[in-house]
Amino acid sequence: ELLWQRPPWLEPAIPDQWETIVDDGDLLVINKPSGLPVMPGGGFLQHTLTALLEPTGAKPVHRLGRFTSGLQVCARRPETRAQLSRQMQPQGGCRKLYQAWAQRVPALDVGQCLAITTAVVERQHPLLGWIWGPRADDLELLRRQLSAHSEIRLLERAAIGDRLDVVIHTGRPHQIRIHLAWLNTPLLGDPLYLGEGRINPDATPGDGGYLLHAHRLDGVQHHNAELGFTAEPPPPLQARTNSIRREK
Fold first, then answer.
1. 67-96 pLDDT per residue, tens
2. pTM score
3. Beta bridge partners of 27
4. CA-based angle 72:76:80, to the nearest 5?
5. If residue 115 lies in a helix (H) or strand (E), which one and from where to where?
6. CB distance 212 to 177 below 8 Å
7. Is 211 within 8 Å of 101 (Cβ atoms)?
8. How far is Cα 242 from Cα 63, in angstroms, rounded to an integer?
């Protein structure tokens, strides 16, 4: 029998306050702040949403990226988590809408939509070996690929860039970041996924700086009712002009 006690390590500070969208004693939906990891990993164990929720009995149903803010669905009963997890799958019936600030998308005018169906592929990375990224022209850089489908709509064109609605029809790793980088219009502040299919060799997927928010979730079935939730974006993601198109 081998017993090993690993001493705790110093974890970076994280935002530990959030807005509760709904809490019925089982279902818990919050507006997660950017910078809060959902699950343990990458040097985080106690400074995670999972650990902070332990006293409430709730556990996350899915996982937003650490620096993606917005709607995070949790539940207390295992049966509810299982049901909601199935609904969050690509064919599960939920509609996931994000808002993002990206570099200018020349193919769009305000109100227009564009579908992106290019695959998410595994790319070589000097720090991690392999990471998910946009398709590259050099096929030797690829190892695996996953089909992916996103749809973007231009909400606002401002001096800093374009504010977009993004609907994801598949849930691939870093799908929105990768699809916009593939379009050569990466998320503003994204340290990893650059334009022209390039990946920053000195950055990792867990690095922050990009502007992405899980804004709306529709079609959630809970207790024989269909629910929808909205989380207002934080100030860095809010509109910059008065001439915008808002989702009704």
1. 999 999 999 999 999 999 999 998 889 999
2. 0.89
3. 75
4. 85
5. strand 113-116
6. yes
7. yes
8. 33
